[in-house]
Structures are given as C-alpha cells and as structure tokens.
Amino acid sequence: MPQSYAELSAFLEYKLQLGLQPIALAYVTEAPQDIPRVRAVAPSSCAFWRQAEVEVFYASAADHFKCPLGASVLGFSLPDQQTRELREELEIMCGMSYIRAAEVEHLPKVARSFEGIVYGALHHFPLEPDAVLLWVTPRQAMTISEACGLTNWASTPGGLLGRPACAAIPVAMSQGEPSVSLGCVGMRINTSIPEEFLLMVIPRNRLETLEDDLSRVARVHGQMEARYLERIDSA
User: Fold this and answer.
1) Which pLDDT tens digit goes with each residue over 16-42?
2) Helix, strand, or coil here: 209?
3) Contact call for residues 132 and 23 (beta carbons, < 8 A)
C-alpha cells in the first residue's frame, strides 16, 4: 500500500496510463469546517465529479437536488418538492421506455445517514475516501477487474452497469467490489466525458491492496502478451 493517497493516485495514473486523474468522495455527517462548500450548484451529481478534478469541496444534500434521481441514488432523503420531481421524472422515463417500471423499486441507493459529500482529486484528498472514481478505457477496466477478481468464472462474475451512472457508487460500496458503468445519457451530457471512457468505482476496502493487485496482474499480462506474440510469430 502506498504511504499516501497522493502516492496511490500517482501509481494508478502511471500503471494504468489514465487519461484523467482519480477522484475521491467521502460521505460526512456534518459540514467540514476546513473544506469550502461548493460555489455553484451543479445540474447533476455527476457534474461534481469533473469539478473535483480541480478543487476539493463539500456539497450538501441540497446541493445535489437539481438531479432528484442522482440525489436519491446517492442516499439523500428528498424533501417533498424533490420527491414529486423524482416521481414525475421516473414516470417520464418509463413513458419513454428509457427504464422499465419494474426497475424503479430496485434502483441502488447508498444506505447511510449523512449531511453531504466531500469531493476532490485523490492525490490531495484530505479525508479517507468512501470511494474512488476512475475514468477508464475498456483495457484499463479489464486490468482492474482482473486484479480485483471480478472476472472469476468459479464465482459470480461482475457485470457492466448502465443507467443511471451514479448507481455504480452504491453498488461498489454495498458489495465491497469495484463496479463498472457504461454511463448514461445524463452523465455524458453533464460531465462532457469523452465517449471512449467508462466509469469505474473502487470502494474504500479495495484501496489498501490495489497497488499489489495491479502490479501482479500487470506482470501476468506481460507474460500472456509475450505468449500470444510468440504464437503469432511462429504461425
């Protein structure tokens, strides 16, 4: 395990050749005194992720209410107004066949009581993260998935998640395993993330061994690549 989150971030960026830096988030039960509150309310929860690349900030529950669905998924209790907005939004989504009515009650949610979330780049994050968010290519997602044992046919392999993208956070936190999301239309619009990137969420409990796990898989991949190249050369 690296000595600091700065070292872990540097390791991930170097080992995986990430195009964008890792982002951390931590749930808090009260507003931190030494961390500034977000200056402007974002149109969605996922928009905070890109803002966190350049600053550390605290966003209260109310700061997430522009997107009632995202706020609900992230575990916030919604006031009456936002509850009505969420109900209307889900009815519209079902009416458009964007989601199925049977899915609504099964949407993942963070099951905790808290006041808000601290966001920021992992390399200078001041708290212990509950989750780390990575923007990854399919190859990078493959490497992390293999390192964390998600592609194990002797057990239940982990699958790809879809809409809403923020659901990857409660899934990772509740299962204690990384989750991968293809994203959703809202995430693509509100984050302006390049289309080649997937969202990967690493829960806190996986951070301690992540460096060793990735180093091990990188060695194995090197060995496998050499075998495949040898096979091509001998064909």
Assistant:
1) 999 999 999 999 999 999 999 998 888
2) coil
3) yes
